[in-house]
Write a structure and sequence with these properties.
This protein has a nine-stranded mixed sheet with strand order 1-2-3-5-4-6-7-8-9, sandwiched between helices. The chain is an alpha/beta fold. It is built from ten helices and nine strands.
Length: 306
């Protein structure tokens, strides 16, 4: 019976895609544990909404939802590969941590972000918008208590029948990379990490950029001299010995937002922590993802997997 249901679901999906779906099309799945919508009301998940982007990213189904962390509602996104749903086989997971901050609504997740990554790497991709985005009482702390918003995603994935977190990868760009390092130092369920254009010394960021100093004064409460512990707990270079899982670091030598030296020094300090570590340096000034990064990430994930 389970085999017949899987065949019917697969045929329905094929008919849907061949019928020429438009941006308003929504796929209605059977009520089973491989349908993300069935988790509405479970473990603080609510307001699940399927995103109508299947015509652009037909290899996955994507949703936005809210979930509870520390008593507040946080906006999240998830994309699940179609073949995972069709075959009813749990799929590996990547947690993606975005850059930017919620003080100025900079770098916010867009509806297609997780779908794009999911399509490229064929893993479930789940991401948090972090607290403070929708005017919640709790504020974005740039690597403070908002770390709980990311770690809660692991708790949620542990209860998804369609998610296999045995090889959980966490990745992040810029501020998201900093949060990835912090999370990896706190939670052993994270099995590999990727930091792209990521700060590893927040005090140095404060001293190198006047605009960053203003932002950090506002969010953290003051300078590194005034609050050294607050900066150290956000700076992987202060506790690099805790980063023992396979780590991929990607950074541009001329990056003007986060200096290359931070990534270079972190790569050196963790070089002997794990044989599967990799450091990729570019000679340009791009802050963020390069077109070539997807291929590098896919290859590294395959080579460093258990």
């Amino acid at each position: 019976m389970k085999h017949i249901t899987s065949i019917v679901l697969m045929l329905l999906l094929i008919v849907f895609f061949l019928s020429g779906c438009n941006k308003n099309d929504i796929i209605h799945l059977p009520d089973n544990e491989y349908n993300f919508e069935t988790y509405d009301g479970i473990n603080g998940i609510k307001n699940i909404e399927q995103l109508a982007n299947n015509n652009v990213y037909p290899a996955c189904l994507s949703y936005k939802f809210t979930y509870e962390t520390d008593g507040g509602d946080i906006l999240g996104y998830i994309s699940v590969p179609i073949d995972c749903i069709q075959s009813k086989t749990p799929c590996k997971v990547m947690i993606y941590n975005r850059g930017g901050n919620n003080l100025g609504k900079i770098g916010a997740l867009q509806d297609n972000d997780t779908a794009e990554i999911c399509t490229e790497i064929n893993r479930i991709v789940i991401a948090s918008q972090y607290r403070g985005f929708n005017g919640e009482s709790s504020k974005d702390e740039l690597g403070g208590s908002d770390i709980n918003d990311v770690l809660k995603l692991i708790d949620l994935c542990e209860n998804f029948a369609f998610a296999d977190i045995d090889d959980l990868c966490m990745s992040g760009v810029s501020r998201g990379g900093m949060m990835t390092y912090i999370c990896a130092s706190k939670d052993s369920r994270i099995k590999r990490i990727i930091g792209i254009s990521a700060p590893a010394d927040l005090a140095l960021c404060y001293n190198e950029r006047e605009d960053m100093a203003k932002l950090l004064n506002n969010i953290i409460g003051g300078s590194p001299d005034a609050f050294p512990d607050r900066y150290k707990k956000r700076s992987a270079l202060c506790w690099s010995e805790k980063l023992t899982v396979p780590t991929l670091i990607i950074h541009s030598r001329q990056d003007k937002q986060v200096s290359f030296g931070q990534a270079e020094q972190l790569a050196k300090e963790i070089e002997n922590n794990n044989p599967n570590n990799l450091f990729k340096a570019y000679d340009d000034d791009i802050h963020g993802i390069h077109e070539e990064d997807i291929g590098i990430i896919k290859s590294w994930l395959n080579d460093s997997s258990k």
